[in-house]
Amino acid sequence: MNHPVPEQPTEVVARLRATFRTGRTQPVEWRTAQLRRLREMLTEKGADLAAALHADLGKSSTEAYRTEIDFTVREIDHTLDHLTDWLRPEPAPVPAHLGDDARAWTRYDPLGVVLVIAPWNYPVQLLLAPVVGALAAGNAVVAKPSELAPATSAALARLLPAYLDTDAVAVVEGGIPETTALLAERFDHIFYTGNGTVGRVVMRAAAEHLTPVALELGGKSPAFVDRDTDLGVVAGRLARGKFLNAGQTCVAPDYVLTDPRTAAALEPLLARAVEALYGSDPAASPEYGRIVNERHFDRLSGLLDSGRVVVGGTGDRTTKYLAPTVLADVDPASPVMREEIFGPILPIVTVPGLDEAIDFINDRDKPLALYVFTQSDETRRRIADDTSSGGLGYGLPLAHLTVSDLPFGGVGESGMGSYHGRYSIETFSHRKAVLDKPLS
Ligand code: NAD
User: Fold this and answer.
1) Could you tell me the residue range of the domain that residue 254 belongs to?
2) Which CATH number does the domain housing residue 30 bear?
3) What is the per-residue pLDDT across 178-195, written as a single tens digit (0 to 9) for each?
């Protein structure tokens, strides 16, 4: 359908709701057809999306495919492989007082019209992976890309309607005014990814309509490094996880927590790991990304004097290049430790040992991810039992979110609700209780 005059949010939602009420999005065939079309879009127009990601974030094509386009294709494939199983009604035992002939089960009902609001840092993956779940669960969807990744937002607004059922899927572009207008509408679910301040705005707006929300937020994700580990391996994995997308990853290791002796040993190894990844001049590496805008560049530059520079520490505002940076001797009260960094700065904070590390983590907001590098089973167990975080990664940052059978989401200040694979079906469905007592 062509709309010469942009539709108002009220019209968009009414149109999608009308489609939903016809039952068109219910059959599994419609759902899988939409997912296949989305897959076609990603394979046929992957180059367009990669170019937009490069324009917005300096993402290399390799990174664009690995972390956004192919990532979403895998999520689609996994969903197509298992959707029928996931949707199967689940029988429940019936108590004796209802008689032998009574039966009970649960079934997944779609919720209706879902709003997905995405951020700029993985602007393809973080819009489309929730859309995959919402469609797979049989909903109509309004997708709102981030205005801070304008090339990607424009590409998605152009491509999605060309591939998907436009009576059931709409893209609304824009920033705060447009999102505020959308949030005034009644949705059946709102799936928001971004920061906690806006998360509160979303939840307040949702409360007006008693609309359920998933809030995929961020925060400072610590990486605890035990003294007994192979620090060369640890440094390589930390650097790779931290400096991907120039550190603008919600589950990037935000800071390293370790004892002073291990910190000293780790410093030169981290510097070496950065060079192994991006060469001696990361500004010239096609694999190294850029900061999204001047505002974030200035914010990050202001954090550089929170410690002694081990490697990096330089930048260029005109190209929004900020070197992969490691800071040592960082005071826990310094600016870099007071907010989520969300950029290529890795502070090392020292604590005497495991007990103090656990206290350090528990004294702060519950992180989205917590990483632990240790050979000790006891340390692994202590961290798992004594801390709370959205996800827990032993030995490898970021990787848990690539496991489609694991729920991805935060806890406390890092968010609520989860998605990926079957957890998306849980999020975007109502699990309806059904009791059947035959009349004769
Ligand atoms: P952003 O500025 O792109 O905002 C996200 C979305 O919120 C955008 O679509 C934007 O238009 C909308 N928005 C902004 N202000 C609004 C307002 N006042 N009212 C209504 N809508 C508004 O992205 P961001 O928040 O800077 O993203 C970075 C944060 O997101 C970090 O904290 C990061 O950790 C977190 N994050 C979390 C995940 C996750 O999966 N948990 C993934 C990526 C990023």
Assistant:
1) 222-402
2) 3.40.605.10
3) 999 999 999 999 999 999
> Residue-wise over 346-378: b if at least 16 C-beta within 10 A, else e?
bbbbbbeebeebbebbeeebbbbbbbbbbeeee
Task: Write the pLDDT tens digit of every residue in 46-99.
Answer: 999 999 999 999 999 999 999 999 999 999 999 999 999 999 999 999 999 999
Q: Quick check: 3 pLDDT over 70?
A: no
- Asked whether 151 lines ligand 1 (CB < 6 A), one says no
45 lines ligand 1 (CB under 6 A): no
Residue nearest to atom 19 of ligand 1 (CA): 176
> Residues 199, 280: one domain?
no
Domain count across the chain: 2
In this predicted model, what pLDDT tens digit does every residue of 199-241 receive, in sequence order?
999 999 999 999 999 999 999 999 999 998 999 999 999 999 9
* 197 part of a folded domain: yes
> What's the whole-model pTM score?
0.96
* Rounded Cα gap, residues 166 and 74, in angstroms: 24
Ligand 1 binding pocket includes 274 (Cβ within 6 Å): no
CA-closest candidate to residue 54, choices 292, 406, 300, 339: 292
Q: Which atom of ligand 1 is nearest to the CA of 174?
A: 11
Tell whether 254 and 140 lie within a shared domain. Answer: no
| Residues 120 and 245 grouped into a single domain | no
